[in-house]
Design brief:
The protein has 263 residues and is of the alpha/beta class. It is 54% helix and 10% strand. The chain is elongated. The protein has twelve helices and six strands. Strands 3-2-1-4-5-6 form a six-stranded parallel sheet. The longest helix has 24 residues, at 83-106. The chain has helices at 16-35, 39-54, 60-66, 70-73, 83-106, 112-128, 134-143, 157-165, 180-183, 190-200, 214-224, 253-262, and strands at residues 4-7, 148-153, 176-179, 207-211, 227-231, 245-247. It has two domains: 4-15 and 132-262, Rossmann fold; 16-128, no CATH class.
């Protein structure tokens, strides 16, 4: 009998990739207008520079364990009470400026002051552009009251709470919100799933984990024996991680739950 659903946040309920893409578009357009460079090419150049810089910092191993990607580093403040987050808070201003300045340089524009301007603009754009999948609220409404719900998300508590504060309608649906940066380990580490189970006083066979990421959500759930549902909206190729179920739209959860609860 399924009693609860654990949901991932980013790109499961919140459309984070779209928010980042639109923030890049809005910011790169300023450079296109100022210097006549191609906004799409600048975005690629900045993304590449950001990835390279991000992986060069001493905090990289920590960000991988907690699950914080380079583009979150381009807009998060990391005001969290933890040594590694404090280091990130110190690194982030120069990281942003360097990533944008390096991206501009790739496009033939050597202007550090403008790089700094774009680096400051990007976080504003990202905060102004929160996207939630159209289906998210409809699905949560239908589940509400029938199932307990827990949000299990990787990331910096400060940044994940920021995402939730700009989409405040999501929060009331959840009995518990577990953020990897608070817990000290991120998905797919089995311990964060066991922690979530204990918070809800549930057994592993009473829960479904729903998420978009095979290497974190699905791998982690599988490792502790929780049934996993991979939401694969973009028809991605499956890798060696095999989810218990695969769906392409959250609406498909309902027949699945009906079937499981008849067993």
């Amino acid at each position: 009998m399924i009693k609860a659903i654990f949901f991932d946040l980013d790109d499961t309920l919140l459309w984070d990739q779209r928010s980042i893409k639109e923030a890049f578009s809005a910011t790169c357009k300023i450079a296109e207008e100022r210097y006549g460079i191609d906004a799409g090419e600048l975005e690629e150049a900045v993304r590449e520079a950001a990835r390279n810089l991000y992986s060069s910092y001493e905090t990289y191993k920590f960000t991988q364990m907690i699950g914080i990607n380079p583009f979150e580093g381009l807009w998060g403040n990391f005001l969290d009470d933890h040594d590694d987050f404090r280091k990130m808070k110190e690194i982030v201003p120069s990281y942003r400026k360097e990533a944008w300045t390096a991206g501009l340089k790739t496009m033939g524009v050597d202007d550090a002051a403008f790089g700094h301007e774009l680096a400051e603009r990007f976080p504003q754009e990202r905060r102004n552009l929160p996207f939630v999948y159209e289906e998210s609220f409809e699905i949560l409404d239908k589940l509400n009251g029938k199932y307990q719900m827990l949000l299990l998300t990787n990331g910096s508590p400060d940044l994940q709470h920021t995402k939730l504060s700009i989409t405040p309608e999501l929060v009331p649906y959840f009995d518990q919100i577990v953020i990897s940066g608070d817990f000290g380990r991120g998905k797919p580490d089995p311990s964060i799933f066991e922690h979530a189970l204990s918070l809800m006083s549930l057994k592993k066979d009473e829960v479904l984990m729903v998420g978009d990421n095979l290497m974190t959500d699905i791998l982690g759930a599988n490792s502790v024996g929780i049934k996993s549902v991979w939401i694969n909206r973009l028809n991605k190729e499956r890798n060696e991680v095999i989810p218990t179920y695969e769906i392409h739209h959250l609406e498909e959860l309902f027949p699945l739950l009906d079937e499981l609860n008849m067993e």
